Amino acid sequence: DTEVTQTPKHLVMGMTNKKSLKCEQHMGHRAMYWYKQKAKKPPELMFVYSYEKLSINESVPSRFSPECPNSSLLNLHLHALQPEDSALYLCASRDIFGGDRTYEQYFGPGTRLTVT
Amino acid sequence: DQQVKQNSPSLSVQEGRISILNCDYTNSMFDYFLWYKKYPAEGPTFLISISSIKDKNEDGRFTVFLNKSAKHLSLHIVPSQPGDSAVYFCAASPPTGFQKLVFGTGTRLLVSP
Description:
The complex is a heterodimer of chains A (116) and B (113). In chain A, the strands form two sheets. In chain A, strands 2, 4, 5, 6, 9, 10 and 11 form a seven-stranded mixed beta sheet that branches. Chain A is mostly beta strands and 116 residues long. In chain A, a hairpin with a 6-residue loop joins strand 4 and strand 5 (44-50). Chain A is globular and about 45 Å long. Chain A is built from no helices and eleven strands. The N and C termini of chain A lie far apart (36 Å). Chain B is mainly β. In chain B, 0% of the residues lie in helices and 53% in strands. Chain B is built from no helices and eleven strands. In chain B, the strands form two sheets. In chain B, strands 2, 4, 5, 9, 10 and 11 form a six-stranded mixed beta sheet that branches. In chain B, strand 6 (56-59) and strand 7 (62-67) form a beta hairpin. Chain B is globular and about 40 Å long. The chains are: A mainly beta (116), B mainly beta (113). Chains A and B meet through strand 5, strand 9 and strand 10 of A and strand 4 and strand 5 of B.
């Protein structure tokens, strides 16, 4: 099972709203990632969690707040977003102990976020 | 600074023929390379990878070639099928602890019947 699930699939929010994106994997992967992807662009790394600890923050604005409650779950809390934050938000996970496969990241289907 | 580049935004191929997607990189520290396939409204799906210690890796219809001296890799799909129509991203990873992936800009492949 190489499935990463994300909810919701679509989200429309106003600039004053607070919402959360959720990501879940049951592959035992100990590294989890948030990416942002705009149309016709490659995914851009936002955050990396390793063993439930934030390892990398790619200078993401504080209106995006990640959280890793346990090894299977990853959340992205959103507050006071701007219309330019509208994008596809992708979650991925990686098996740190995967041997030859340790570089492979498995992506969820994404949450299509629209900020109005 | 785009460290991983896919200079062809699109490629059209007939069913049954070979599709060749190219990728160039600038950072000689990259030591692992991956190809992902992405359908609209879905997340990228891992296809095939190659370590910098190899020059070829094959998996069914997919073969990745790596030319380290030219900092160039390519993905060959033989034979191409209409279901292969998607956007293909190459990605590279430096030898750091967190295996950040640096993605190319993508090539849209269209395989026509």
